Amino acid sequence: MTDAAKTKRDEWITRIGLLAMATLLGYSFIFRTLLYPNWTHYWLTKDATQTMAMVTKEHYHGVVDYKYSIGTREYTGRSQTNWEQEKYRNVGVGQKSIVFYSFSHPWLSSLETPQFPRSGTIILLIALPIEIFLIITVINPRSAWAMNIHQESEPKNKT
């Protein structure tokens, strides 16, 4: 195999690895952990309405599943319990709690009192540029905006 072919192969292996990293970072960390909750809390602070929800399942560290009805439609959600209100702090299966839902997007809800921006917003502002640079590097590793991932194995002769 020629040196040019090895270099091309190594670039593709690196690009595939970066694509996997960008996908993992993008979905699991940026979208699922930061963007979606921030988007939900934005709408909850913009036009939140309250109703009562029934807790249907308990998870870890005060996270519960719940269901609530608006008109004839029933919605479900998962949220941390409302630690700010003593009455709803330790709700269990079969008990009711206040749920805040977006009037314009009724499927967005939370048992916690809505507040925006959330603490993860700062992390999002750091992680998003890293994700962008990863995607640029996957698309075009030689771009001026790409991450410098290829190291020269031999120093260049200056003559």
For the structure shown, list the relevant keywords.
5-stranded antiparallel β-sheet, 159 residues
Q: How far apart lie the N and C ends?
A: 29 Å
Largest sheet: 5 strands, antiparallel
Number of helices: 2
- Radius of gyration over alpha carbons? 23 Å
Element-level helix/strand string: HEEEEEH
Strand order of the largest sheet: 3-2-1-4-5
Helix content: 40-55%
- What is the total domain count? 1
Would you kindly provide a written description of the structure presented here, covering whatever features stand out?
The protein has 159 residues and is of the alpha+beta class. The protein has one domain (3-139). It has helices at 3-47, 121-139; strands at residues 48-58, 63-70, 73-80, 96-102, 109-110. It has a 5-stranded antiparallel β-sheet with strand order 3-2-1-4-5, with helices on one face. It starts with a helix and ends in a 20-residue tail after the last helix. The relative contact order is 0.17.
Condensed summary:
Helix content is 40%, strand content 23%.
Element layout with pairings:
Layout: H1 3-47, E1 48-58, E2 63-70, E3 73-80, E4 96-102, E5 109-110, H2 121-139
Antiparallel strand pairs: 1-2, 1-4, 2-3, 4-5
Helix pairs in contact: 1-2
